[in-house]
Design brief:
Length: 174
C-alpha cells in the first residue's frame, strides 16, 4: 500500500526527499493535460515516405532551412499516459482534509492566516489547541517555524519575523 511505503521511505534519511518528489511527480503527471501534438524534424529526401506513413496524423508541415521540414503531428489519444482518476481522488481527499481543518478551527474561533496541504499558519498562542495532529509523519501537519510577526502581501507571499529574529520570506516569481 502506498501510504505504508511512504512511511517506510520517510524513515530512511535521503530517501525521504526522493520519495516525496516521486509522489509529487506522479500526482502532477496524473493531472496534466494530454499533449495534443508531437514535433518531428524530417529531411526533404525522407518527407514523401514520412507523409505516406503518417498522413492521417499530420497537422502542419513547415519548410525550414537546409532542406529540413518541421512536421507537427496530432498525438493519438491512446498514447497519453495521464491518470485523471488518480489525480482527482488525491486532490479530492486533500481538499476534504483542508476543509475539515478549516471548519474545526472556525468552530474554536482560531483564525487561519494560511494553509497548505501539510502546514498551517496560526497565532502562536493557538498552536496548542489546534484540532489537528502535529508531527513529521505522513498525514500530520508540521510546524515549519514559529513567527512572532508575519505580513502577507498576497496569497502564498509573505515575510515572517521568527522568534529568533531571523527573517523568512516566501513569494511567487512571475
Amino acid at each position: 500500500d502506498l501510504v505504508n511505503l511512504m512511511c517506510d521511505v520517510r524513515k530512511i534519511d535521503g530517501l525521504n526527499k526522493l520519495g516525496k518528489n516521486m509522489l509529487s511527480s506522479l500526482y502532477g503527471k496524473s493531472l496534466q493535460n494530454a499533449q495534443q501534438y508531437r514535433i518531428k524534424l524530417i529531411h526533404k529526401s525522407s518527407l514523401p515516405q514520412f507523409i505516406s506513413q503518417n498522413g492521417n496524423y499530420i497537422h502542419t508541415i513547415t519548410k525550414n532551412k537546409n532542406d529540413m521540414y518541421t512536421v507537427k503531428l496530432l498525438k493519438s489519444l491512446n498514447l497519453n499516459f495521464n491518470i485523471p482518476q488518480f489525480g482527482v481522488s488525491v486532490l479530492s481527499e486533500s481538499r476534504k482534509r483542508l476543509n475539515d481543518v478549516i471548519y474545526k478551527c472556525s468552530t474554536l474561533n482560531i483564525p487561519i492566516y494560511a494553509i497548505k496541504t501539510d502546514s498551517i499558519v496560526v497565532d502562536n498562542d493557538k498552536v496548542d489547541i489546534l484540532p489537528i495532529t502535529i508531527g513529521n509523519e505522513l498525514g500530520q501537519f508540521k510546524i515549519e517555524y514559529v513567527a512572532k510577526n508575519i505580513k502577507f502581501t498576497s496569497p502564498k507571499c509573505y515575510k515572517a519575523i521568527l522568534n529568533d529574529d531571523s527573517i523568512r520570506t516566501r513569494g511567487k516569481v512571475i
